[in-house]
Structure formats: structure tokens, C-alpha cells
User: Which sequence fits this backbone?
């Protein structure tokens, strides 16, 4: 009788009722979590080796146990990788390449996302003659191998007088980032309620008014998705950086390659590992700071037709 009264009281109060669910260890759960654990170890083990190696001195590394934590932690390899490691004739580390990559990535990300968002908004809400053909060309462009277009782009940049400059590389990254980002924005804007667009049109809002006052405030998740894709792709790019620039303005990835593959002197594995971690730090930081919005953007727009 007391249990029945308590159950009724909890129901009236809005509290959950009934027996507490139990976590059952089933074969399915063991297989799923076991597989996730193995995959996690597979990806985390190389990162662990890189971190512990970058914190060791060369005498300790020569002992051969790559999995052992450092006996004496030293940050000298990180300082050398950043400031004094030799990349060809220059011995100023990755610092110069870092600022070159910043000067390349920031305008490329801003321009490509801005243009792609307007393209996606136009294709989703402002249908014009030839829109389907335009969208098809963009999709085809997203799947053309980069290697096919290297030489034609070299000729175009040379004729424009910007080959071997940061401006030329920014233009290349902007163009190559537009197809996939246009697809993302188009799908996201197509998933927004059409009634908002129609109501704004009835109120007299024009193309840019609807874009800035309605679409942009509702599009933070997909902008984060596009930003992460562009930052990761542009910052980690090696091919375009080595082809369309020159040694004085090489991005960070090209300088990393020069450090790791240097054939002069003793191979300093701790410096190589520290340089690799420094090069990959920016995309990791961007993803960890905005990972939740990335998942929201993918779920909200990237998979809609």
C-alpha cells in the first residue's frame, strides 16, 4: 500500500517512477566497447610516442625504448624546432613558416567561406536560370584531382604576375575550397524553414537583407563546419605550398618536411617530433574548441539533399 502511494506521489510530482534501469554487460556491449577501445589505442599510441619522444634528450632516445616515459623532461627540442632548426639554408625553425601559414590560412578561410555561403544561399533560395548547371559544375570541380590542375594554374598565376606569392596561393585555396563548401551551405539553407524566407520577401527584404538578417544568425553551426574543413585543409596543405610559393614564404608544412628530411648532421628525432606536433597544433586546437558545433552543423545540414 505504501509503495503504491509513493508511486502515485512521484507520478503526480513529475518524478521518474519504476525500477532503476540496470547496465547489463552483454556480448554486444563487450564487442562494441572493445572495438572502440582497440581503435582508440591504435590512434592514440603514435601520438603518445611523439609526445614522449619530443620530451626526451637524444642520449635517452638512443637507449631504444620508445614507449618509456622520459626520465628527465626537457623542452629544448621544442625550442629548437620553433626557433633554431635548419630548413635548408635558413636556421630559424618553424616560426617563419608558422606566420606564413597564418597569412595564407586567414584570408583563404574568410574568402572561401564568404563566397561559398553566398553561393549556397543563392542556390537554395534564389533560383536563377542555369542554377542546376552551375551547381553541377561546382560538384564536378570538387572531385577533380588537384594534380591535374597544377600546371594550368601555374600558367594562369604566372600570366597574372602573382606566381610565387602569398596572394596567388590564397586565390588557389579560395577557389578549391568553394565547391565542397557551397554544397554544405546549399544543403543547410535548403533545410531551413522556407516560410522565413517567404515572410521576409513579403516584408520587402531583398537579397542581402535576408542573407544578413535571417540566414547568417541561424547558420553558426554550418559556418563552424566550413571553418574546420578549410582550416584543416589549408593548414595541412603541402602540395600547393611547395608548388605555388618560394622558400622565403614556404608554409609551415613545407618547412616541417625540410626539417624532418634533412640529410645534414645527426638525425634529431626529438626535434622532428616536436616540430610535427607544433605543425599540427592549430587544426587540433580549432577542432577541440568548436567540435560540438561541428557535430551540430554536420547533423543539421551536411547530409540533407
Assistant:
Amino acid at each position: 500500500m505504501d509503495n503504491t502511494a509513493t508511486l502515485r506521489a512521484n507520478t503526480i510530482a513529475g518524478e521518474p517512477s519504476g525500477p532503476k534501469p540496470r547496465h547489463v554487460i552483454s556480448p554486444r556491449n563487450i564487442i562494441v566497447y572493445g572495438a572502440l577501445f582497440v581503435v582508440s589505442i591504435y590512434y592514440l599510441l603514435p601520438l603518445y610516442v611523439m609526445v614522449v619522444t619530443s620530451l626526451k634528450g637524444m642520449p635517452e632516445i638512443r637507449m631504444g625504448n620508445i614507449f618509456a616515459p622520459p626520465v628527465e623532461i626537457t623542452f629544448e627540442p621544442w625550442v629548437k624546432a620553433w626557433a633554431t632548426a635548419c630548413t635548408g639554408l635558413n636556421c630559424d625553425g618553424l616560426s617563419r613558416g608558422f606566420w606564413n601559414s597564418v597569412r595564407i590560412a586567414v584570408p583563404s578561410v574568410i574568402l572561401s567561406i564568404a563566397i561559398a555561403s553566398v553561393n549556397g544561399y543563392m542556390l537554395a533560395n534564389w533560383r536563377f536560370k542555369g542554377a542546376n548547371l552551375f551547381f553541377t559544375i561546382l560538384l564536378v570541380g570538387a572531385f577533380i584531382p588537384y594534380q591535374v590542375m597544377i600546371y594550368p594554374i601555374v600558367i594562369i598565376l604566372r600570366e597574372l604576375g602573382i606566381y610565387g606569392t602569398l596572394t596567388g596561393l590564397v586565390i588557389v585555396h579560395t577557389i578549391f575550397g568553394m565547391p565542397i563548401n557551397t554544397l554544405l551551405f546549399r544543403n543547410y539553407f535548403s533545410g531551413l524553414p522556407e516560410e522565413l524566407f517567404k515572410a521576409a520577401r513579403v516584408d520587402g527584404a531583398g537579397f542581402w537583407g535576408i542573407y544578413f538578417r535571417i540566414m547568417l544568425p541561424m547558420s553558426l553551426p554550418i559556418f563552424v563546419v566550413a571553418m574546420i574543413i578549410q582550416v584543416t585543409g589549408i593548414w595541412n596543405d603541402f602540395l600547393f605550398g611547395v608548388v605555388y610559393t618560394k622558400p622565403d614564404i614556404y608554409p609551415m608544412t613545407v618547412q616541417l618536411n625540410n626539417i624532418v628530411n634533412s640529410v645534414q648532421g645527426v638525425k634529431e628525432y626529438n626535434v622532428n617530433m616536436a616540430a610535427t606536433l607544433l605543425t599540427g597544433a592549430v587544426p587540433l586546437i580549432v577542432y577541440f574548441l568548436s567540435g560540438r558545433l561541428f557535430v551540430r552543423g554536420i547533423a543539421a545540414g551536411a547530409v540533407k539533399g
User: Anything to note?
Assistant: The domain at 95-302 is CATH 1.10.3720.10 (MetI-like fold).
